[in-house]
Design a protein that fits this description.
With 131 residues, the chain is mainly α. The protein has a domain at 45-131. Helix content is 58%, strand content 11%. The protein has helices at residues 33-40, 47-55, 62-74, 79-91, 94-101, 106-130, and strands at residues 2-4, 7-11, 18-23. It has a 3-stranded antiparallel beta sheet, with no helix packed on it. A hairpin with a 2-residue loop joins strand 1 (2-4) and strand 2. Helix 2 (47-55) runs parallel beside helix 4 (79-91), helix 3 runs antiparallel to helix 4 (79-91) and helix 4 packs antiparallel against helix 6 (106-130). The longest helix is centred in the last third of the chain and has 25 residues, at 106-130. The protein is extended and about 50 Å long.
Length: 131
């Protein structure tokens, strides 16, 4: 894929053939507003668990994830969903589990993930309920 300003070209890697060409219109909103509002609303019961699952493969500290969290909240994500995402990035990240695997037995690591994951989900749901 080649991207230059507003032009996007999809090219086959093996043949070099142009598969698709697209020019973006900067005046057009490409994501339907209704879909965004329904997905990101505090009333969506799947928003918090999805945010937690999306945060697991990332690796950052609390200070490093703050700009991303601030941008997500500014875009309209509810505070509980944003908090759950931030906490899962810091506490349940995959690299963190690999490091903990060296000092914890698998059963204890499973208990850690279950307890921390449950706490993160509870905080996310409660903040969405209250705020």
């Amino acid at each position: 894929m080649l991207i230059k300003e507003l032009d996007i070209q999809v090219i086959a890697t093996d043949t070099g053939e142009l598969l698709y060409h697209l020019t973006l219109n900067p005046n057009r909103d490409y994501q339907p507003q209704q879909h965004e509002e329904s997905r990101d609303s505090p009333n969506n019961p799947l928003a918090v668990p999805v945010a937690v699952v999306l945060g697991i493969p990332l690796y950052s500290n609390a200070a490093g994830i703050l700009p991303l969290v601030e941008a997500l909240h500014a875009k309209g994500l509810s505070i509980g969903t944003v908090l759950a995402f931030m906490m899962s990035v810091v506490a349940l990240s995959l690299p963190e589990m690999i490091l903990l695997r060296r000092v914890l037995k698998p059963r204890l690591l499973g208990v850690f993930v279950a307890v921390v994951g449950t706490g993160i989900l509870a905080v996310g749901f409660m903040f969405n309920l209250v705020l």
